Amino acid sequence: MNEFLTHYAYLIVPIVKIAILVFIILTVDAYLTWIERKVIAHLQARWGPHRVGPHGLLQPLADGVKFIFKEDPMPANVDKAAYFLAPFITLMLALTSLAVIPFAPQHFTVFGYETGIGIADVNISLLVLFAITALGVYGVALAGWASNNKYSLLGGLRSSAQMISYELALTLSVVGVLLIAGDFSLRKIVDQQAGSGHGLISWNIFPQIIGFVCFFIAAIAETNRVPFDLPEAESELVAGFHTEYASMKFAMFFIAEYTSMITISCLATIMFFGGWLSPFPASWTFTQYLPSVLLIPFGLWVIFDGIRYENMFGRMLLPVVGGALTAIGVALVIFPVFNDAIQGIFWFLTKVFAFLFVYIWMRGTLPRFRYDQLMSFGWKFLLPVSIANVILTSVVILWRMH
Amino acid sequence: MVPTNYYLMLSAVLFGLGIVAFVFKRDIITIFMAIELMLNAVNLAFVAFSQALGKPDGEVFVLFVIIVAAAEAAVGLGIIILTARNRRSLNVENVNLLKL
Amino acid sequence: MSAQVIIFFVLAALAVLAAINLIVQRHPIHSALSLIVVMVALAGLYLLMGAEFVAAVQIIVYGGAIMVLFIFVIMLLNAGEEERTNFSKLALYGGIPLAVAVTGLIAASIVNSSTATALPPAQPVTLTSTRTLSHLLFTEFVYPFELTSFLILVAILGAIVLAQREN
Known about the structure:
The complex is a heterotrimer.
Chain A: H1 2-7, H2 9-43, H3 59-69, H4 80-96, E1 104-110, E2 113-117, H5 125-146, H6 150-173, H7 175-181, H8 186-194, H9 209-222, H10 247-272, H11 290-307, H12 312-334, H13 336-365, H14 371-401
Antiparallel strand pairs in A: 1-2
Helix pairs in contact in A: 2-3, 2-10, 2-13, 4-5, 4-10, 5-6, 6-9, 6-14, 7-14, 9-10, 9-14, 10-13, 11-12, 12-13
Chain B: H1 4-24, H2 28-53, H3 57-87
Helix pairs in contact in B: 1-2, 2-3
Chain C: H1 3-24, H2 28-48, H3 52-77, H4 89-112, H5 115-118, H6 130-139, H7 142-162
């Protein structure tokens, strides 16, 4: 058995990692919907979901059950191949793009097979991500076309035209980072930002602030989020390209959208904000206790809130959750080995969640673009600014080389 | 280690299928796609030889072929849109007179 | 059979089946989807040969831009299925055997050619680094590079002029 595992470790280990990652990402997607509904609700001075479980925490579970049991109608005269293929393509591409993202710097060896945290470590991981983004247009275009519905077709064509326009600006805004790092590999981009251990000031955000702004705006347009969500907004064109998709197929589009949000947030942290690097200089070793300093009070607050919660279920569940969080925080202080291992992934997740919060914050705050404003913004403003960023970065690099 | 001959035979088969599609299909857009298939078959042969000889020159040429194919597709599809708008049909058998 | 040969046969079978599907399907949108499968399969083959940058460019440019253009044109022109006509007997009984014969001739000449002298002995696959490719592109091939950028400019202008509505 052991020999079988060692011989085929190059197949089994990635499959296990894929299974773990897909499970984690689907759970994070589900709870991202909860976070989104709560944050937007509090921005609009209401409560959001708070009945289904304590603080509405079981709402994603209820939504999942609804998606499973709801009827999945298929309109007449649709192109069956394209109709079934479109949500699969979108979901498959969104989940595949997570394979090349490095989450933490550690390398470990299992059954003689050396691997890192992150499923694949490719030399051209950034190009792979752009290739997947480029293919993502098909899901939307085919969904709009296959639905045998004028409004869906218009919504699908608008959405794919928007995605193609902003894809150019997305790719060009990253070229500045590539010029500085000199490599396509995401791991090497983060390693280059480590610099000499000075923390925050060696990150790419400072030399590449224009590139970051262009990248973030183009990324929001690529994922069809507010303020660029005209093709899929509910008050325009019925519901755009996913009008005729119900229950499970709609859930696939939904999951694909949140997963691509997570991917873009991961990309933005890796390329501009130092990925898994701590913002504090490496010589300040007391900052390594920051996870515990955050977890222990948070766990105690959850316990305290749970004891006084209004219904019985909350009074039972929340103190358990709070107790678990406090126990993890204490364990991090007591076992330094555990603490060292968790540093990289803690900072990575913090930055990714900060970006997701900004995404949700924008959804609750900004109105949406009109279609012609959207297209002229993409072609007439964002693309020239990205090109100017590339030229400026090259000039500065050449000037510094002399 | 895959022998180079395998790649070349696959390239020949794809090229032949491209020719069959070019000759037998009546829809102008499908004929265009057959041209793209033939170009892809040639690209495969280029990369196969580039790997066999150990020089990256073949891959640089593949980049040029892709760029030329993109330019050709853009202009060709523009022409197709114009003629299809005037004739209201995409059948090449109808393009048998010199005037519209 | 090493793992590489198995992967080659899987990808090659996928490419050939998708190309046959392109011929067999009646609606141009299904042919376009089959062509996209061919391109992705070929990108996989390029990766197998160590040409990682070319594989990525193939998917980004061919699969993500050119084929999207094809699909947009098919949707814009509302291309319908091809009508069924009587297949010409000459084409069926003369043409298909002729096409198979031509392909067989090319394949046989490849197999029988003495590549033992023309090509060096097979080496394990090495990844071509992007740095090498870009160095070549800007030193040895700089003239074709500038020419193709000019060609793209001409194509953009041509496409804009052609697609304008007559005012």
